[in-house]
Amino acid sequence: MDESNVSAKHRDGERALLNSPLVSAPPSRRTKEKDPPPYGAQHRQTALWEAGGNEALPPQWRQYKLLDDRIAYQDTTLATTSGNRPLPGVRMDYLGQLVPGCEWHISPLGRSYFVDHNTKTTSWKKPVSERPPECLTPECIIEGHSEVIWGLVRLGTGSNILSTSGDGSIRQWTKDGEPLERPWTSDGGAVPSIAISPDESMVMSGSTDGKLRLWNIREGSVVGDPWEGHESSVWCIEWSPNAREIASGSSDGTIRRWDPDTGRQIAPPIETGHGWVCAVRYSPQGDKLTSGGKDKVIRMWSKEGELLMEIEGHDSLVTSLCWSKDGVHVFSASFDRTIRKWRSIDGKELVVFQGHTDAIISLCLSPDESHLISASIDHSVRIWDPKTNQPVGNPLLHDDEVWAVVISADGKYIISGGSNAKIYVWNLEAALEHPGDDHLAIEEKPDAKLKANCLRFSFLWYLTCSPGTSSSIDRYYLARWSGFQEAAHQQRLDEIWQRLLGR
């Protein structure tokens, strides 16, 4: 593979890890600033916030270590992370996709604000790209969480939605956006993972304190004490098809299996070798487990926890997995911007879906398996036909990174959420009426990696050399992709990248 492509994918993985909202946030305190500093303002690097000045973080910030012991700093009100310590006058490095021409700065009282050189203005809110006029509008936008939406599940009866967030709460909504009862809260910090029981009477959640909690949906309350065993954040949870056990994966590198009736572990932990376990899924028959994580490898395990197979092909962290109903195929998503289809019996790679321009975080199949849905931090949800292996409809655009996606039990609605703390409800039929991006097709084996490079080149040539033929949605993604590539070649980002790698 071309060295620049490897570097780009490595950079995507580092940036997505750096910006992933996996650590519980302390309650933020409001500062006294009403308006952001004006455009062109210069600040001394002297902190004016309470409790410690330059020696202390601003009230709405926290710091934590990444896996390689680098320190990251996060503004909990924005779920936005930097490798730079927040000080007035410091331009923060944000390896996400800010609108071209925008910068992230810190005010004298410690609030994040954004400078837009395009309009010569400043704002407390992170700027968003202008939405193309022909892009689909969501049926409903649900607001209520105060931080990033990390997990979503749908209830079959009534098409209600359950959401989890970095704000530490679980909330239930109608698909029309009406909240149902009060939020469910615990003292476990952010809630990265959630799974619903097959009979839809109970929900299992995983938190950044390493504990699992069982919830009664009707009562909206925790059942018994938290389940303890993991030593770090619980990234993923899955109920077995027969509801007799629950599997959980953690950044401690283990999968643990639990008895839902007692909350006790029913077998020794599986030491996966993933580093971080980001995805775990039971086969439809319940006789196998698949897992994926930071080491790029998909592993298949027997019901007894024995390793059956290792599947390699992704170039970066594996974030999400799902099985076909007949158990013949496994689909996977990754930071490497691809979705891959594998034959479960021998791990043979069958198809590589190409189209997202940044890390893919979440993946699901529609109930009738006619559509595969993916969510990415490129601010989009995409729809694929798993039979033709082609994208269908135009991308569904968010204003910020998308971290979770599910589809309603009747297959009519796509529900997605992400960094802006909002949940979007999309009409699938309306989405399919929009023409698909035919030039963003897939690569198939053999020579998938070669075709990927050719396809990417052809896509950019198509958009840049054929004016008038591409849609404004195409141009929207080209602007985002090109802006990021240009920024990546600037000396400042090169220096940041070297520092992130510890060189």
Fold topology:
Layout: H1 3-19, E1 61-65, E2 71-75, E3 80-82, E4 91-92, E5 102-106, E6 112-116, E7 121-123, E8 140-143, E9 149-154, E10 161-165, E11 169-173, E12 184-185, E13 193-196, E14 202-206, E15 212-216, E16 221-222, E17 234-239, E18 246-250, E19 254-258, E20 270-271, E21 277-282, E22 288-293, E23 298-302, E24 307-311, E25 318-323, E26 329-334, E27 338-343, E28 349-354, E29 360-365, E30 372-376, E31 380-385, E32 390-391, E33 396-397, E34 402-407, E35 413-418, E36 422-427, H2 428-433, E37 442-444, H3 448-465, H4 472-488, H5 491-500
Antiparallel strand pairs: 1-2, 2-3, 4-5, 5-6, 6-7, 8-36, 9-10, 10-11, 11-12, 13-14, 14-15, 15-16, 17-18, 18-19, 19-20, 21-22, 22-23, 23-24, 25-26, 26-27, 27-28, 28-37, 29-30, 30-31, 31-32, 31-33, 34-35, 35-36
Strands in their spatial order, largest beta sheet = 25-26-27-28-37
Count of helical segments?
5
Profile the largest sheet. Answer: 5 strands, antiparallel
Q: Averaging pLDDT over every residue, what do you get?
A: 80
Structural class: mainly beta
